[in-house]
Amino acid sequence: MAIDKRAFDVARRLARRRSAPALHPRGLVCAGVLDVPGTGGGARWGVPFLDQVGEYAVTLRWSRAAGLPARWPDGLGLALRVRDAGGPDIPLDLLMTSSGTGRLLRHLPLPRRDALGGPYSTLLAYRTGDRERVIAAFPAREGRTGVPGHPDALRRALDRGPLRLRLCAAAPHEPWRTFATLTVRGPESHPRAAVPAYDPYLHALPGLRPTHRLRDLRTAAYSGSRHGRDAVLADGHDPASPGQMPGRRDRPGAP
Q1: Can you tell me whether residue 41 is helix, strand or coil?
Q2: Nearest to residue 224, comparing CAs of 25, 20, 15?
């Protein structure tokens, strides 16, 4: 696969300057659990991970795309590492951004202040079984007022109890269909917990993987961001700080 050199260089330089990922430089790493009820006697997805009952540990990261001040709307990111989704030591990564729900808006990032104020979507489609579908996470309010999409505010919200989101998928002419429930239990116990090296292309499953649209561009940006961040860490600089953790590399292939 050819690497887009320009995208690689831009991401590498930005990551090195920020001592953090090129995009979503500041975030909160949390522990969670993903409950997949399976399809039972209903319509099957054609993907074992979605069709079978399962409970999976999740490492997730809530973040702000541009790193703007907390009082400003920003593209909010939600990255999930579902451990053992495809079997022992075979994870699934899902990268989602604040978006709308309509046929067009689900493909567009929408800046937002409130972390629970709307859905997060993969923007680009996934091949799920025999169809292409966008995957989205819909937060549950559960009586809560607005929660600013900033690491400190999210940490305080989690101190009051878990946050929950429904994970759904839909093709352009389908209604949203729930396939799992995500419970966010709280920040990782170690304040300098490393950010997993999220990569939706390396960490996909048979029958559940991103389509090839913009793959070369995105892969180059992920690789460049990783190289820039790793160069800073190789110099002996630790950019992490409690509650705002750009992190370090734990395996190849992610921003």
Answers
A1: coil
A2: 15
Domain 24-215 has CATH 2.40.180.10: yes
Residues forming a β-bridge with 128: 131, 208
Ranges under pLDDT 70 in the chain: 1-25, 189-195, 212-255
pTM as predicted = 0.76
How many helices (H) and strands (E) the chain has is answered by: 4, 10
Structure tokens at 70: 């907390």
Amino acid symbol at 51: D
Cβ neighbours, 10 Å, residue 67:
17
Token pair recorded at residue 155: 């940490």
The DSSP secondary-structure symbol of 191 reads T
Q: What pLDDT shows up at residue 35?
A: 98
Instruction: Tell me the C-alpha distance between 188 and 31, whole Å.
Output: 6
| Model confidence pLDDT, tens digit, residues 137-190 | 999 987 787 899 888 999 999 999 999 999 999 998 899 999 999 999 999 865
**What is the rounded (10 degree) CA torsion for 128, 186, 87, 249?**
90
Q: Nearest 5°: CA angle at 189, between 185 and 191? A: 120
Q: Where are the domains of the chain?
A: 24-215
